[in-house]
Write a structure and sequence with these properties.
Arc Repressor Mutant, subunit A, 2 domains, 67% helix, 3 strands, single chain, alpha+beta
Length: 112
Protein backbone atom coordinates (compact mmCIF):
# COMPACT_ATOMS: atom_id res chain seq x y z
CA UNK A 1 0.00 0.00 0.00
CA UNK A 2 1.45 3.38 -0.95
CA UNK A 3 1.65 6.29 1.48
CA UNK A 4 -1.35 8.17 0.05
CA UNK A 5 -3.58 5.08 0.20
CA UNK A 6 -2.49 4.45 3.78
CA UNK A 7 -3.42 8.02 4.78
CA UNK A 8 -6.79 7.74 3.03
CA UNK A 9 -7.50 4.50 4.88
CA UNK A 10 -6.57 6.10 8.24
CA UNK A 11 -8.77 9.13 7.56
CA UNK A 12 -11.69 6.97 6.47
CA UNK A 13 -11.50 4.97 9.70
CA UNK A 14 -11.47 8.21 11.74
CA UNK A 15 -14.69 9.37 10.13
CA UNK A 16 -16.59 6.32 11.35
CA UNK A 17 -18.85 6.93 14.33
CA UNK A 18 -17.55 6.04 17.77
CA UNK A 19 -16.14 7.66 20.88
CA UNK A 20 -12.58 6.51 20.20
CA UNK A 21 -12.65 8.13 16.76
CA UNK A 22 -14.17 11.32 18.17
CA UNK A 23 -11.34 11.46 20.71
CA UNK A 24 -8.71 11.01 17.98
CA UNK A 25 -10.29 13.80 15.91
CA UNK A 26 -10.26 16.09 18.95
CA UNK A 27 -6.57 15.31 19.52
CA UNK A 28 -5.76 16.19 15.90
CA UNK A 29 -7.68 19.47 16.28
CA UNK A 30 -5.77 20.26 19.48
CA UNK A 31 -2.46 19.57 17.76
CA UNK A 32 -3.33 22.01 14.99
CA UNK A 33 -4.28 24.61 17.61
CA UNK A 34 -0.79 24.31 19.09
CA UNK A 35 0.66 25.04 15.64
CA UNK A 36 -1.62 28.08 15.40
CA UNK A 37 0.64 30.37 17.44
CA UNK A 38 3.50 32.28 15.83
CA UNK A 39 5.66 32.24 18.96
CA UNK A 40 5.41 28.46 19.22
CA UNK A 41 6.28 28.15 15.52
CA UNK A 42 9.33 30.36 16.07
CA UNK A 43 10.42 28.20 19.02
CA UNK A 44 10.01 25.04 16.95
CA UNK A 45 12.09 26.59 14.15
CA UNK A 46 14.89 27.32 16.63
CA UNK A 47 14.74 23.78 17.97
CA UNK A 48 15.11 22.39 14.45
CA UNK A 49 18.66 23.74 14.55
CA UNK A 50 19.65 22.51 18.01
CA UNK A 51 18.42 22.01 21.54
CA UNK A 52 18.16 25.20 23.55
CA UNK A 53 17.57 26.37 27.11
CA UNK A 54 14.83 28.84 27.99
CA UNK A 55 17.22 31.76 28.46
CA UNK A 56 18.78 31.29 25.00
CA UNK A 57 15.39 30.93 23.31
CA UNK A 58 14.18 34.09 25.08
CA UNK A 59 17.29 36.01 24.01
CA UNK A 60 17.10 34.84 20.39
CA UNK A 61 13.38 35.67 20.12
CA UNK A 62 13.64 38.91 22.15
CA UNK A 63 11.04 37.72 24.63
CA UNK A 64 10.89 37.15 28.37
CA UNK A 65 11.88 33.81 29.86
CA UNK A 66 8.43 33.63 31.44
CA UNK A 67 6.70 33.94 28.06
CA UNK A 68 8.98 31.31 26.54
CA UNK A 69 8.46 28.95 29.48
CA UNK A 70 4.71 29.25 29.05
CA UNK A 71 4.92 28.36 25.35
CA UNK A 72 7.35 25.50 26.01
CA UNK A 73 4.92 24.07 28.56
CA UNK A 74 2.22 23.99 25.87
CA UNK A 75 4.60 22.40 23.36
CA UNK A 76 5.66 19.81 25.91
CA UNK A 77 2.04 18.96 26.81
CA UNK A 78 1.39 18.43 23.09
CA UNK A 79 4.44 16.10 23.01
CA UNK A 80 6.17 18.29 20.43
CA UNK A 81 9.23 19.03 22.56
CA UNK A 82 11.17 17.04 25.11
CA UNK A 83 13.29 18.30 27.97
CA UNK A 84 16.49 17.13 29.58
CA UNK A 85 18.12 18.50 32.69
CA UNK A 86 21.82 19.29 32.93
CA UNK A 87 22.50 20.60 36.41
CA UNK A 88 20.08 23.45 36.98
CA UNK A 89 19.52 24.06 33.28
CA UNK A 90 16.79 22.41 31.25
CA UNK A 91 17.40 21.96 27.54
CA UNK A 92 14.53 21.58 25.09
CA UNK A 93 14.57 19.70 21.80
CA UNK A 94 12.03 18.54 19.26
CA UNK A 95 10.40 15.34 20.44
CA UNK A 96 10.68 13.36 17.20
CA UNK A 97 11.01 13.45 13.41
CA UNK A 98 7.25 13.76 12.84
CA UNK A 99 7.41 17.46 13.62
CA UNK A 100 9.81 17.97 10.72
CA UNK A 101 7.47 16.06 8.42
CA UNK A 102 4.52 18.23 9.47
CA UNK A 103 6.53 21.41 8.89
CA UNK A 104 7.87 20.29 5.51
CA UNK A 105 4.37 19.43 4.37
CA UNK A 106 3.03 22.79 5.58
CA UNK A 107 5.81 24.73 3.85
CA UNK A 108 5.32 22.73 0.67
CA UNK A 109 1.59 23.44 0.80
CA UNK A 110 1.91 27.20 1.25
CA UNK A 111 4.56 27.51 -1.48
CA UNK A 112 2.30 25.97 -4.15
Amino acid sequence: MDHKAHIQQELSSLLKEGPENEEALCEVAELFKVFGDTTRIRIICLLFQQEECVCDIARKLSMTQSAISHQLRILKQARLVSARREGKTIFYALADHHIGTIFCQALEHISE
